[in-house]
Design goal:
The structure holds two protein chains of two kinds. In chain A, about 75% of the residues lie in helices and about 0% in strands. Chain A has 14 helices and no strands. In chain B, α12 packs antiparallel against α13. Chain B starts with a helix and ends with a strand. The chains are: A mainly alpha, B alpha+beta. The interface between A and B is large, with 68 and 77 residues.
């Protein structure tokens, strides 16, 4: 089977898969006790008659299968609906927040790879030496640190005590756009977001490398007189295969995994949007995020499979 | 050999390069000040929640705070609970002839010489337009109460607006709290999709909204044409969205915030330890109280049958007296509150002569014995075959409540009542009947949360008293908030009487007696006055607390020292 055919089959599978995911998501969201009107009922000002009117306006009086079909047909037609709380189009809301999270996430992702891969390789090549123990110990500590705690600690040290970096937000309010200003606001959330995963990945890379370095074909390559650098690169190519799967599957974290960092650093991103929408039972927004997230996951897994094939000539679809 | 030496050099070079880059970013950044410099005449206020939109009729707090500084109301409420005129010359009452004797016509005489921030004069056209918008069913209003009784608005001249009601609406003074500019909407009264709702840039208030950066902040700038000369003293006010209170505290310390609103009560000592801030607590119109289910419990419950335990008023009074509320206030609220006597704790309608029952476990014991509950071998009272066992519900995510319920449980154990605490998310506890709400359906014994006259109606108890205690509001699948299933003919009559007239004195007389009935019948156990905790930087001055207004109700008086 050729790569093209493989890709075609996978893409074809994506659509029914997304429908199934959206349906189960819709049912689960609606099954949770409480509803989008719960926020209103907490307010003493509200009268029952007004609530009924709002329920009608939002179409909540319809049976669930009718509501799902209506959502599906309008969604596929490009209309993602309006948020129950802000009345803004869901596409606009997700678009705004996604940009902000994507920026933070992309940089964090690059940082994680730039830090964890060289360090993991270094630790593996110097296995069981002092350097290795230092690196492994540090990585272990890094991955055990709670993100919330780390973020607040960084704020206390760098914003409150040293006053070098701002304590939150994306940019200085009211000031003109400045790259330096943006970078200064990015650093602390970036560090917080990448710290834990860098530790985890460094250990993972190290353990994969170690396993490969112990293989017979590596010993053969060395015996044949291949320079150490080439050997290492060959080893890495083999170790990278499982690592690539793990690393690529991190991409869907973009959608929602940043909520803690966004909350602490007042970063207006997707994670916070999902959290707020979930608390308010804002169904249209939740469904929009669900579909985008599911699509991201499905394509990430497809990407992982493609990279797999590229890295390992033995794998053919 | 040489190659591995090369690799080592590469890694060290890499590490060095990384260090250089980091150091460059750290030390070459221009100034050492961080975030938004809070200098000049600008104030940064931290709020935890972003408003849904900035139309105060179509959303709740914090929209009222922000939009309330752009759009003035006709009448306001001062910290003492007295009405005062803002855009009108005099507060209309029957006594001064601006309200017809039967209460169905209200005349607003507007102040002259006021202009909108874009220079246009403020006239009765704007007032009439606002009323018509509020009557238009197409607009998703947060509350239509009162507006659905309006039959028409007349403007005999540029500075007079006469509103006609189908029947007298007793809380008429709370209506039209924000006057909209007629010309911005092109004559359309359906403003549900207007961009003004996201950015009210024109108003008669001291500020206008200049920018809303979604998820980050909302920026207000000074209105140079504001009617009070010289005010506001500030040039800019930023409402910054700070979802985490811990991060908010850090930002206060770092000087990136001037005010943090709605801090949690349990963090008061933490905030007081921050240098250069002042922690202000304001007793609000809300009371933390325990609802008692007077009807038979079930899912759904049966309000026609009395609760086997709580149906007896002696038991309810006993519960009230068995809990040591002063101790809770002292230890969990740091002494910053008090026990209210009436469900309407403050304002013109509150009967201050109603005092809370004193903490008296012996009196409680006597009442329980009198009601037939005898102490059993395990220390818990029983009557016939029923044990005096109750479930106390409260909301998750609130440390103060969690601690308080434990004190309640211990206190009640002392008098032979067994209490089981159930923590439930508010979206389930307070959900509609259709969504399985527990208090709605009557599937609870006791439920603790805060409630009271709120929002635009914080000064008028009509909506609160009728929706919480009137027998017509007992919950059904269609709605209703009388979760305690209180049914008292005298109370109903008094409330209806008070709602049928616009005369404040008559209404007060009826409300005073109605409050006394609630106190005697004890369908709720009043625990403490709910307090708002706001933290201010000591740079600021000129602000006053107002339990009937939002923080920033007097933003035009704030100054930066």
């Amino acid at each position: 089977m050729s790569l093209a055919r493989f890709l075609f089959q996978r893409v074809l599978l994506t659509t029914p898969l997304l429908v199934v995911i959206s349906l189960s998501g819709f049912l689960i969201i609606n099954a949770i006790p409480g509803g989008p009107l719960a926020a209103y009922t907490e307010n003493p000002e509200f009268r029952s008659e007004d609530l009924v009117k709002i329920a009608l306006q939002l179409g909540l009086d319809q049976p669930i299968h009718v509501r799902y079909v209506r959502w599906l047909t309008t969604f596929v037609g490009g209309d993602w609906g309006y948020s129950y709380s802000t009345k803004q189009p869901v596409v606009v809301m997700i678009g705004e927040r996604l940009k902000n999270t994507a920026l933070l996430f992309a940089l964090a992702y690059l940082t994680i790879l730039a830090v964890s891969v060289p360090i993991g390789i270094l630790a593996a090549t110097k296995a069981y030496s002092a350097t290795d123990y230092l690196i492994t110990g540090a990585a272990f500590m890094a991955l055990s640190v709670p993100t919330f705690w780390l973020g607040l600690l960084l704020i206390i040290v760098f914003s409150v005590a040293l006053r070098i970096f701002p304590a939150g937000g994306m940019a200085t309010i009211g000031a003109e756009f400045s790259l330096v200003d943006r970078l200064r606001h990015l650093i602390l959330p970036l560090l917080t977001l990448s710290f834990v995963t860098s530790g985890a990945y460094a250990r993972y890379v190290r353990s994969e490398m170690l396993e490969v370095l112990g293989q017979d074909y590596i010993r053969t390559a060395r015996a044949k007189g291949l320079p150490a650098r080439r050997v290492r690169w060959q080893a890495f190519r083999n170790a990278a295969i499982p690592f690539v799967t793990v690393a690529v599957m991190y991409i869907p974290e973009l959608m929602t995994g940043t909520v803690v960092v966004e909350t602490i650093f007042s970063w207006p991103g997707m994670g916070r949007l999902l959290w707020e929408a979930a608390l308010r039972h804002d169904y249209p927004v939740l469904m929009g995020i669900l579909v985008v997230g599911a699509t991201a996951t499905l394509f990430a897994s497809l990407l992982a499979d493609i990279l797999y094939a590229w890295l390992d000539p033995r794998i053919r679809y | 050999m040489r190659r591995s030496a090369g690799k080592k050099v590469t890694l060290t070079m890499y590490a060095r390069w990384l260090t250089v880059v980091l150091l460059t970013v750290v030390f070459l950044t221009p100034s050492l000040s961080t975030g938004a410099p809070t200098q000049g005449r600008r104030v940064v206020i931290g709020i935890q929640q972003e408003p849904a939109n900035l139309n105060p009729y179509m959303s709740a707090w914090p929209s009222w705070v922000i939009a309330g500084k752009v759009l003035d109301g006709l009448i306001g409420v001062d910290p003492k609970g007295q009405f005062y005129p803002i855009l009108v010359e005099k507060v209309p009452t029957v006594a001064n002839g601006l309200v017809s004797a039967d209460g169905t016509r209200v005349t607003y005489k507007l102040r002259k010489g006021i202009v909108w921030s874009d220079g246009r004069p403020f006239t009765a056209r704007d007032v009439a337009f606002t009323w018509n918008v509020l009557k238009n069913e197409a607009n998703p209003l947060y509350s239509r109460a009162g507006y659905d009784l309006v039959t028409g608005v007349n403007t005999p001249d540029d500075y007079t607006a006469v509103v006609s009601f189908k029947q007298p609406y007793a809380p008429y003074l709370t209506l039209s709290g924000y006057v909209l500019p007629a010309d911005v909407f092109g004559g359309q009264t359906d403003i549900s999709k207007s961009a003004f709702n996201r950015r009210p840039g024109i108003g008669t208030g001291p500020f206008v909204v200049a920018e809303w950066s979604s998820g980050s902040y909302i920026r207000l700038t000074r209105n140079p044409r504001y009617r009070l000369a010289g005010r506001p003293f500030l040039d800019e006010v930023i409402f910054k969205i700070v979802p985490s209170l811990d991060a908010g505290a850090a930002q206060l310390r770092a000087g990136e915030l001037d005010v943090l609103t709605n801090a949690s009560i349990g963090q008061i000592p933490d905030f007081e330890s921050i240098p250069g801030v002042y922690v202000r607590t304001t007793e609000s119109t809300l009371n933390e109280r325990i609802l008692l289910n007077l009807g038979k419990r079930g899912n759904p419950g049966d309000p026609t049958q009395p609760h086997p335990i709580l149906g007896d008023v002696r038991v309810r009074r006993a519960l009230d007296q068995a809990i040591n509320k002063d101790r809770i206030i002292r230890t969990l609220l740091f002494g910053r509150s008090s026990v209210p006597g009436s469900v309407v704790a403050v304002g013109w309608a509150s009967d201050r002569s109603i005092k809370p029952r004193p903490y008296d476990p012996e009196a409680a014991t006597r009442l329980l014995e009198e009601a037939g509950w005898r102490v059993g071998p395990d220390g818990i009272r029983r009557k016939d075959s029923q044990r005096l066992q109750l479930e106390l519900f409260t909301t998750t995510g609130n440390k103060l409540r969690e601690s308080a319920t434990q004190v309640v449980r211990d206190d009640l154990r002392q008098v032979g009542v067994e209490v089981t605490i159930r923590l439930v998310p508010p979206t389930i506890l307070f959900a509609l009947w259709a969504d399985g709400g527990l208090t709605s359906r009557g599937d609870f014994d006791m439920s603790m949360s805060a409630d009271g006259p709120f929002g635009a109606n914080s000064i008028d108890p009509d909506l609160f008293l009728s929706s919480r205690f009137h027998s017509s509001a007992i919950p059904t699948p269609q709605g209703g908030y009388n979760s305690v299933r209180f049914r008292n003919a005298d109370f109903d009559r008094l409330r209806d009487q008070a709602a049928s007239t616009v005369d404040l004195k008559e209404r007060y007389a009826a409300y005073a007696r109605a409050q006394r009935i609630i106190q005697e019948e004890a369908p709720v156990v009043l625990m403490w006055r709910h307090i708002w905790v706001d933290v201010f930087s000591r740079r600021l001055a000129g602000y006053r607390a107002n339990p009937f207004g939002e923080i920033g109700w007097d933003l035009e008086n704030w100054i930066v020292r």
